[in-house]
Amino acid sequence: MAASVRVQAPAKINLHLRVYGRRPDGFHGISSLFQALTLSDTIVVRSLKKPDAVEVDGVFDCPPERTTLYKAALAFREATGIREGLHLAAEKRVPAGAGLGGGSGDAAAVLRGLDALFGTALPKEELERLGASVGSDVPFFLSCGAALVSGRGEAVESIACRGDLAFVVIFPGFPVGTAWAYALLDEERPDDSREPDPGPSVLEAAYRAGPPAWPFANSFEPYVASRRPAILAARERLLAAGAGFAAMSGSGSALFGAYEDPEAARSARARLAAEGFQAYLALPLARPPALD
Fold first, then answer.
1. Which of 57, 62, 97, 190 is the one with CA 20 to 30 A from 223?
2. Handedness of CA 290, 281, 44, 153 (dihedral sign)
3. Reduced to 3 states, what is the DSSP secondary structure of residue 119?
4. Sign of torsion over alpha carbons 127, 129, 134, 139
5. What is the DSSP string of 41-88?
6. Please, what are the domains in the chain?
7. Which conformational region is residue 46 in: left (phi greater than 0), alpha (psi within -120 to 50 degrees), or beta?
């Protein structure tokens, strides 16, 4: 057995996010287009000579026992019966509370790392089941690339990932709570029937066509940005910096600009960083990163 396994935990953006009204089960349905990015956290997993112990190191926005890393480790142990102690160390780069899927990516990385560390060779379907028990977005990160996502986030249909795009991601310096964003949406938009609702085939065709032709939207953006004006300001700066398309990701607070020229994206990131924005250059990620 390896002494430790190092896993990159990618971020994602929602190129499109249509949120439907609350369902009878209390969840909201979504129709979304996910894109995995090279922006990532680093997770290192190793065993401990302390049966049943689960230690989590890192800087988080909640206690370690409430992190998705901890929850994923417990799910793995319950499924496999492995009782050895575990140590999970996270080097965070993906901002928390940004709508970039950092917690879900971390959970997927822990599952992949523990599966490799202990040689359990769990089928992908079993890893996806364990991931879904931690969070709706986790199964996506076990495949990465681009995908049409529906249901409450658990239905993932992979599509061919474009490798010729580049993204500039801006974190405006504050998180947005997912529960708050959903409550705001329910309060401000009691009727969701007037929102544009492109079907999956339209979303995929637009993705192929390129940013200037994208009809994508984010149900949260107008309502969250009305309470957090810095979000709208950052979006306008991305467009002024040459992005072919710019929008908020997930329930916020991060924004992304899409470019079909990687060098233009690199120059835009440098310019925005010089203006004081916390800006990242990220490329599409077609598959989960290799394990070290």
1. 62
2. negative
3. coil
4. positive
5. EEEEEEEESSTT-EEEES--SS-GGGSHHHHHHHHHHHHH---SEEEE
6. 4-159 (3.30.230.10), 166-282 (3.30.70.890)
7. beta
Catalytic residue among 12, 41, 71, 106: 12
Q: Which pair of tokens denotes residue 288?
A: 């989960």
Edge-to-edge strands, sheet with 255-259: 245-248, 255-259, 166-171, 278-282
Selecting among 41, 106, 115, 137, the annotated active-site residue is 137
Instruction: Name every residue whose Cβ is closer than 8 Å to that of residue 101 and which is 6 or more positions away in sequence.
Output: 11, 12, 94, 137, 140, 141, 250
Tokens of 16: 């499109």
pLDDT in tens, 100-154: 999 999 999 999 999 999 999 999 999 999 999 999 899 999 999 999 999 988 8
pTM: 0.95
Distance CA 160, CA 99 (A): 23
Close Cβ partners of 11 (under 8 Å, ≥ 6 residues apart): 36, 37, 39, 40, 94, 100, 101, 102, 105, 169, 282
